[in-house]
Amino acid sequence: MAAPTLGCFQAPGVCRGDGRLSNTCSFFPRMKHQNLRSAIAVAAPQEQLCLDPKVVNLLDGVKWDEKGLIVAVAQNVDTGAVLMQGFANKEALATTISSRRATFYSRSRSSLWTKGETSNNFINVVDIFLDCDRDSVIYLGQPEGPTCHTGSETCYYTSVFDTLGDSKVCILFFSFVEEFVMEASELVFYCLEFPVAEKQRAVSFDNIVFAGGYNF
């Protein structure tokens, strides 16, 4: 039986599934669902990442942006908390599949980086999900320690609503109808002229839409 053909591309520093560098480019045919580590290995002398055709097809089906990147979100599999957001290219996603540790592409350093490589606060990935448009990915995993550099469990610990409290935003809904634009302009001046409390009572979606007789 002929050996399967592997697709390879440059990806220095990629680890084998057990965390060690592989000395040869090898293929393991018994690939199970949610366990793709056996489909990826490293040819250390050439520093090439060798992929099973199924993995190559998956990566080719991703809608990478003009810079070859997608948004990559890490989520806690146990709590559902969103841990962090970064970016991934083909090598980063393939490395995450192989090592089972959340790996991203640093736009500032123009290189791959694995979360925890400095702090040892790794995110151990148990599954990976592509969204319906295939232009973003979620690393579903278990974090080893806090994810944020501040020491917080998640990078998303600032609530906008808690920060704003009872503050309101004066929002105007404009139409291309000339008369409505004129009325909206008057409301803009009203927002600028009167105290905040008066603005909140007078300027609302209903006031703007129905005072001018417009129905959307």
Classification by helices and strands: alpha+beta
CATH superfamily of the largest domain: Phosphoribosyl-AMP cyclohydrolase
CATH architecture of the largest domain: Roll
**Strand proportion:** 15-25%
Strand order of the largest sheet: 5-4-9-8
Work out the helicity level. Answer: 10-25%
> In whole angstroms, how far apart are the ends?
66 Å
Uncertain runs are 9-47, 208-212
Query: What is the residue-mean pLDDT, rounded to a whole number?
Result: 74
Class of the largest domain, according to the CATH hierarchy?
Alpha Beta
Q: Count all strands and give the number.
A: 9
What general outline do the C-alpha atoms trace? extended
**Rounded radius of gyration (Å):** 25 Å
Give the ordered list of helices and strands.
EEEHEEHEEEEHHHH
Largest sheet: 4 strands, mixed
Q: Looking at CATH, which topology of the largest domain would you report?
A: Ubiquitin-like (UB roll)
Q: Output the number of helix runs.
A: 6
Counted up, domains total 2
List keywords for this structure.
216 residues, alpha+beta, Ubiquitin-like (UB roll), 2 domains, 6 helices, 9 strands
Architecture blueprint of SSEs:
Blueprint: E1 7-10, E2 40-43, E3 48-51, H1 53-60, E4 70-76, E5 82-88, H2 90-99, E6 103-106, E7 111-114, E8 123-130, E9 136-143, H3 160-164, H4 178-193, H5 196-202, H6 205-211
Note down, in words, how this protein is organized.
The chain is of the alpha+beta class. It has 2 domains: 7-143, Phosphoribosyl-AMP cyclohydrolase (Ubiquitin-like (UB roll), Roll); 161-211, no CATH class. 25% of the residues lie in helices and 23% in strands. The chain is built from 6 helices and 9 strands. The chain has helices spanning 53-60, 90-99, 160-164, 178-193, 196-202, 205-211, and strands at residues 7-10, 40-43, 48-51, 70-76, 82-88, 103-106, 111-114, 123-130, 136-143. The protein has a 4-stranded mixed β-sheet with strand order 5-4-9-8, with helices on one face. Strands 1-3-2 form a 3-stranded antiparallel β-sheet. Strands 6-7 form a two-stranded antiparallel ribbon. Strand 4 (70-76) and strand 5 form a beta hairpin. The protein is extended, with a radius of gyration of 25 Å. The relative contact order is 0.11. This is phosphoribosyl-AMP cyclohydrolase. It holds the Pfam family PRA-CH. One of its GO terms (molecular function) is phosphoribosyl-AMP cyclohydrolase activity. Its EC number is 3.5.4.19.
